[in-house]
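queue> pop job 88
queue> type: inverse folding (structure -> sequence)
queue> payload:
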């Protein structure tokens, strides 16, 4: 199958600063730059998918500033085709991540660029897509742009995968346009009031064909229309920094199935668990993801 993944979402520069304790309001404290890395959920998912060997295009908006150059340089190192749309007068998105020695994180993310990507521009990026291709979306685009992409994907018979993160109040109307949903415990609780089989049932009833609920170190549930729910264990790992675990998981699960020409199955979820165990065991975002070589051995398993 010549499936291509079209990831439309945000790209950001992640600045990780280590601090001895989280700053209090009004405080001025010292920190040390730990890493500067490519991040943003859209870029994360595209980079991981590209490293699996699945043909992948990332469509993202950037601003007119010094961060846009960092973003271009870092993406150029990855096996991903990029369509970066420059928005005049906007700033590129970035995250400031505080980490403490006990492993706690506090993250502030800007979405000036991602939130300003216009529906028409985003939809044009699907012009080369062919039936059966994957469209991979997260929660950082505007409501109108996300809806337009989901509708265009249906019209072109593309397979839509949606990760409702960060959560927005308007996601309820999207489920009937989503083929595959990935969510974590907190998202499941907020959307459905539960984080077990009741949450996956809720989404199947809303029209989603496959639902994946990730449960951190407790593994994941896969629920598909007309099949019993499967419980897939996590791969044990020493968790150092979980940034990007969920993105790794979604990207590898989708790519594993697409590369084999099958619908999402237990094997795809096991591959995702193995890949995200590597991501949680390392610091950083892009630099923590499995390499292309590691990915080959994971996908052979
Ligand atoms: P994040 O926001 O940190 O990127 P998430 O909240 O979206 O992650 P989680 O459910 O926490 O998603 O984690 C996704 C997957 O990563 C899990 O299903 C599991 O396979 C793997 N994972 C997460 N934490 C651990 C851990 N401590 N040990 C092993 N695997 C883990």
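queue> result:
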């Amino acid at each position: 199958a010549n499936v291509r993944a079209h990831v439309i979402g945000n790209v950001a520069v992640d600045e990780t600063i280590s601090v001895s304790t989280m700053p209090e309001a009004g405080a001025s404290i010292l920190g040390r730059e730990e890493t500067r890395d490519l991040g943003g959920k859209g870029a994360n998912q595209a980079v991981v998918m590209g490293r699996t060997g699945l043909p992948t295009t990332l469509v993202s908006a950037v601003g007119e500033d010094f961060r846009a150059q960092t973003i271009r340089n870092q993406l150029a190192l990855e096996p991903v085709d990029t369509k970066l749309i420059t928005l005049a007068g906007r700033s590129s998105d970035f995250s400031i991540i505080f980490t403490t020695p006990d492993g706690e994180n506090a993250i502030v993310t800007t979405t000036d660029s991602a939130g300003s990507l216009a529906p028409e521009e985003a939809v044009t990026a699907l012009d080369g897509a062919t039936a059966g291709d994957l469209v991979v979306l997260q929660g950082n685009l505007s409501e109108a742009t996300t809806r337009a992409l989901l509708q265009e994907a249906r019209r072109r018979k593309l397979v839509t995968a949606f990760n409702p993160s960060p959560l927005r109040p308007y996601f309820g109307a999207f489920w009937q346009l989503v083929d595959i949903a990935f969510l974590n415990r907190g998202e499941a609780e907020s959307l459905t009031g539960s984080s077990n089989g009741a949450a996956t049932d809720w989404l199947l009833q809303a029209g989603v064909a496959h639902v994946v609920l990730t449960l951190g170190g407790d593994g994941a549930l896969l629920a598909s229309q007309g099949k019993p729910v499967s419980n897939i264990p996590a791969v044990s790992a020493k968790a150092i920094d979980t940034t990007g675990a969920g993105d790794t998981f979604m990207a590898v699960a989708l790519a594993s199935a697409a590369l084999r020409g099958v619908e999402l199955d237990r094997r795809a979820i096991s591959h995702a668990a193995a890949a995200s165990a590597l991501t949680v065991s390392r610091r950083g975002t892009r630099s923590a993801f499995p390499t292309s070589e590691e990915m080959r051995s994971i996908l052979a398993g």
